[in-house]
Amino acid sequence: MKRAIYEVYAKVVDANGNYNTLTGYPNTFDSKNYGNDLQKTRIRAEGEYHQCIADMSKNDTRQLQSVILMTAEGNVIYSKSIGTIAELPDET
Fold this sequence. Notes:
Number of helices: 1
Largest sheet: 5 strands, antiparallel
């Protein structure tokens, strides 16, 4: 029997420059928990990925927001970033 496991990762660089994983992430979708339905599992994982992007799009206080949908084997399916990391001032 085939099995699929997907993970959604959500990371941010906040307004103060701190790099954090968002609460509740990574979020895992295992076909074992969806009646071994590979398509349903993929759709649920994609739904979470897109919902995360939608939620991030409503927050403009962070420097950088990134979300990744990948397989358990490490293959990236989708990746999206919003914003950029602010440059650090020279120490000299």
